[in-house]
Amino acid sequence: MAIHWNDKEPIYRQLRDRLVAEILEGIFDDGDALPSVRQIAAQHRINPLTVSRAYQLLTEQGLVEMRRGLGMFVEEGARARLRDAERARFLNEEWPAIVEKMRRLGITRADLSWKFT
Question: Cα(72)–Cα(52) distance, rounded to whole angstroms?
Fold first, then answer.
């Protein structure tokens, strides 16, 4: 998991977003253990508290659970819930902006059809 940090957002949020992407991509499936706080901190040369904060966000969102003495695990159904939430966000927020830009640029469905075959 190579991450290039940016200055626009706190590192813990960027790490959280990367972990969410990895769950969506199937790198971590429901029930899988996540790397330990120490592993991620060492791998990315970041403070362990930063990693803990990212894991805390994931826990609060019901995507991962801590199993005492075992570590952090992806909750059952997390991938499906994330996919549903991302689809809804895309369809309700991103897609309307894309459609509007296509309209302004005069792009039609016919212009796009070859890209999806």
Answer: 10
Residue 19: both structure tokens together: 């972990």
Quote the tokens at residue 6.
């940016």
Q: Is the pTM of this model over 0.85?
A: no
Give the pLDDT means over successive 10-residue stretches in the chain (117 positions). Answer: 81 95 96 96 94 97 94 96 95 95 92 71
Contacts of 68 (CB under 8 A, 6+ apart): none
CATH topology of domain 11-76: Arc Repressor Mutant, subunit A (1.10.10)
For the chain, what are the domain ranges? 11-76, 79-116
